[in-house]
Write a sequence for this structure.
């Protein structure tokens, strides 16, 4: 349902902390070169884990760099990632929130799947493992799911609607959609949004192992030899702005967030449904005023599990009909891993790069075609091609689907 | 729970499938018994806990199509591997 009074949404800043390193451009350069950041798991308890590979933010990441020393002790790793990514995005946007009361017209909506897992795990270890008598007094403020959003709000004096969104692996896309809707409907002129996740703790890794969905070698989306997903971590944060606000101040517009679609499968707690995903993609196209043939690229959810890749392929065919075969579809999770609640945000960096530079990042490790996955997945090597519009898919455990529709900057 | 390994495994399957153990046949697949997806993973966990063993990861495996007998075989292999490992560490 598109109302003529809705405002358009521009993206005027992006920032990322990812397995590729610090910075959205660092991530994008890695992806367009087809370079994977998946490697051997670095963890103190690695010997007691079956998980052998992960996509981790490099050890060289310095959480303290540029962060106020009184703020640092308050931060879980999720908030560290989010603050660094937010600073990069806000700096790129060039916005001054003190000017004309803009702080009050700015929303902060950040997605995260589990929130402060590192803090939770440390306290559990202390209390149950070491029989400590007391928890650290900052435990609650570090682990609360809204901590990242609140720290961004405090650091830049942003006083508009501020909260967290949680929908497992679709958290970032749901957050970005919520932020965009606020701008479209005039509740805010600017929104800082995206996703953050840092949950590679011993407890969480054990829980993922028990589900038997993790690959032991590499992430191979859409390839017949795929063996599951590879866990990742990181944050992607964006500055969204009403198009008129961005144009009036002469901002550099990275892309237009033109529409979105959200559905629930309402079937199984983990097994995905093609109908639910297809309905979300159709909604996103309609909402953005796009016909299937207007879209050149789909950044797939593409986890590399048996179930996702076949179902998503069917869903793309359902949503795009005859045009599905002409789409470039790729899973960048093959390179940055599955950052769960942050994955949609890392993938939005890839989509913005594709729209802006006319380069579609590849699906790495696709060396054995699967007859059940029969689209053009841009195997292994990036493709130079004009990208007018793109979709970015995120599908979550719980049967939740959130799809972004983006257009090249006007 | 006592009895042969087969009886023990069948009883765990029957419990997960919420059916009588008489309905579990060696050739029954988990899917036949209505144990699919996450429930199948849960069943594997129950068997591991009961026998104190670890099944190797079966990435890409579809437990839904595993037969009751194949799970019994897997338990026997895991128990034999464990006994050999214990022997080796003496």
């Amino acid at each position: 349902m598109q109302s003529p009074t809705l405002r358009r949404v521009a993206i005027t800043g992006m920032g990322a902390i990812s397995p590729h390193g610090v910075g959205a451009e660092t991530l994008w350069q890695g992806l367009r070169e087809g370079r994977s950041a998946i490697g051997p798991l670095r963890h103190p308890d690695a010997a007691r884990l079956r998980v052998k590979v992960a996509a981790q933010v490099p050890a060289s990441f310095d959480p303290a760099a540029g962060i106020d020393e009184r703020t640092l002790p308050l931060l879980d790793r999720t908030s560290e990632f989010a603050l660094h990514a937010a600073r990069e995005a806000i700096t790129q946007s060039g916005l001054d929130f003190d000017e004309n009361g803009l702080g009050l017209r700015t929303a902060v909506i950040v997605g995260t799947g589990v929130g402060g897992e590192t803090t939770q795990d440390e306290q559990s270890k202390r209390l149950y493992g070491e029989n400590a008598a007391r928890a650290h007094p900052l435990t609650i403020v570090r682990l609360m799911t809204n901590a990242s959003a609140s720290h961004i709000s405090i650091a830049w004096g942003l006083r508009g609607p501020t909260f967290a969104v949680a929908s497992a692996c679709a958290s970032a896309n749901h957050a970005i959609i919520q932020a965009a809707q606020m701008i479209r409907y005039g509740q805010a002129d600017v929104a800082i949004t995206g996703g953050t996740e840092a949950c590679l703790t011993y407890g969480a890794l054990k829980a993922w192992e028990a589900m038997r969905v993790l690959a032991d070698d590499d992430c191979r989306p859409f390839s017949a030899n795929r063996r599951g997903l590879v866990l990742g971590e990181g944050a992607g944060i964006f500055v969204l702005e009403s198009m008129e606000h961005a144009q009036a101040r002469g901002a550099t517009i990275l892309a237009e967030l033109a529409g979105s679609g959200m559905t629930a499968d309402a079937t199984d707690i983990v097994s995905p449904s093609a109908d639910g995903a297809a309905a979300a993609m159709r909604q996103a196209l309609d909402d953005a005023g796009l016909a299937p043939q207007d879209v050149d690229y789909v950044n797939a959810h593409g986890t590399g599990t048996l179930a996702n890749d076949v179902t998503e392929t069917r869903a793309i065919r359902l949503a795009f009909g005859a045009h599905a075969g002409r789409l470039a579809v790729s899973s960048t999770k093959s390179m940055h891993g599955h950052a769960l609640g942050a994955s949609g945000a890392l993938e939005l960096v890839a989509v913005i790069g594709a729209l802006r530079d006319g380069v579609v990042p590849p699906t790495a490790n696709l060396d054995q075609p699967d007859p059940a996955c029969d689209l053009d997945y841009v195997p292994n090597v990036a493709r130079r091609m004009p990208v007018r519009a793109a979709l970015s898919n995120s599908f979550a455990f719980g049967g939740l689907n959130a799809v972004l529709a983006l257009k090249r900057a006007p | 729970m006592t009895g042969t390994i087969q009886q023990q495994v069948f009883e765990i399957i029957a419990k997960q499938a919420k059916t009588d153990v008489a309905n579990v046949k060696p050739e029954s697949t988990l899917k036949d018994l209505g144990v699919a997806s996450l429930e199948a993973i849960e069943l594997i966990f129950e068997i591991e806990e009961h026998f104190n063993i670890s099944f190797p990861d079966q990435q890409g495996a579809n437990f839904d199509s595993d037969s009751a007998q194949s799970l019994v075989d897997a338990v026997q292999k895991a128990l034999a591997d464990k006994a050999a490992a214990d022997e080796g560490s003496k």
